């Protein structure tokens, strides 16, 4: 199995405090990796470091590539951040936002060449669709928002907005999809629809996904692999094994409790 | 009566260059307002005052000195924002007062305020020469062409700088290009409404257009329409009533904003929208 992503000895520190401590992680092709960890455990920082948005030490490899080749591949990653702040009156429709995700043919060709060179396969979501408009329509259908195509983004609910951002990632046929707590501010019923959509993208289109969440139930149900982080990575492997191992679960809840206590003491 | 005014060369020149300035201000203004750079125009305009004073002091054509000083000021402002912890509006204030102070010192050493300086402060579109008209048209065409080429990266940068960086756009370079273009726009527009009222043309048509609840392209179109009509009607009204064109243009833009605000609070705009939507769903 090919490693889509390899993280080696990755550390991030803010003013001398380690936010991510020597993490080693591998994501294989077709994984739906759930990343869990308490608030402040470094999930978002880890994602941002992988994407090159955060200064870090250690190595990040995409399909084995580093340096300038890595920079060629990064635009082909789809990333939905936890928060996007914009002017509420921003004059953009759902269509405008999704169309931002379209990547130029030149970048796609360059990326595809690299993927081919390492003997891997780029599982394109919409490989048969060349037309930009059709791609956007299809992405909106995948996330169930085709009826809101011309709606102003300021008039969307939190859940709808997140789905728009996922559609923006899908139109670029992402090599890897990184979703940072995608179901935050989404009600329980909608969140399950949302997880089903993520699962569909993973199973039908074989898109590799990394997804951080606090919803352990959803993670145990949908994630094929699991990584558990609290500054350090303390579990990485099969989801079922984690949830059936009482000791591991206990350590996880204790670490959550410790962090909570620490936050409480510093307040 | 309207036709009579239009037969005069100076009115024609004023209207032609006014339309060009209206278009560049609303095009550039859309990005400036959405990036919360609305005060940037004002800041750069004050730096332009310093630039004009440099020109008058050295005996150089004030437009060129204003361009040079403004571009320098804008790049300095961008640098100040990124490499220090000074927040956006405070950085604008630093650059604004520096430019203004430079202007005041130079003006005082060169024997006080002159008519020339006043025309830059409050605009003097009806006194515009043939050469200036051509210069405004040429620079406006270049700005519009650049914005058309860069509209997508700028739109992406405006909405979400981080995603733009992720998409592989040269964000730092684009940010510098953005402030340089904005400075050129401000200096080119000075002749029309003057340094003190430049923000009006950047901000008013855009915030009015955004109230219509449309997507990016349509909002841009509405903004340009409001801007151009404010400028044309402002120039004509100022001619007939013998009042200052710059003030009249801005008052017209304010009246349009108030009109749209009232129509919106009376539910007129959303009702038109709803009728359109129900027609669409019946189709």
Topology diagram in text:
The complex is a heterodimer of chains A (267) and B (283).
Chain A: E1 3-14, E2 17-28, E3 32-36, H1 43-50, E4 57-62, H2 67-73, E5 77-80, H3 94-99, H4 105-117, H5 132-142, H6 158-170, E6 176-180, H7 188-205, E7 208-212, H8 216-222, E8 225-230, E9 232-238, H9 239-244, H10 246-266
Parallel strand pairs in A: 3-7, 3-8, 5-6, 6-7
Antiparallel strand pairs in A: 1-2, 1-4, 8-9
Helix pairs in contact in A: 5-6
Chain B: H1 2-6, H2 9-34, H3 38-58, H4 62-83, H5 88-109, H6 115-122, H7 130-159, H8 161-166, H9 171-193, H10 198-210, H11 216-241, H12 245-265, H13 268-282
CATH architecture name of chain B: Orthogonal Bundle
Task: Name the average pLDDT of chain A.
Answer: 85
Q: What is the CATH topology of chain B?
A: ABC transporter involved in vitamin B12 uptake, BtuC
Count of distinct structural domains of chain B: 1
Helical/strand content category of chain A: alpha/beta
**CATH homologous superfamily name of chain A?**
P-loop containing nucleotide triphosphate hydrolases
Quaternary structure annotation: heterodimer
How much helix, percentage-wise, in residues of chain B? over 70%
What's the CATH first level of chain B? Mainly Alpha
Strand content of chain B: under 5%
Strand arrangement in the largest pleated sheet of chain A: 5-6-7-3-8-9
N-to-C SSE series of chain B?
Answer: HHHHHHHHHHHHH
Shape of chain A: globular
Number of strands of chain B: 0
Give the mean pLDDT of chain B.
Answer: 87
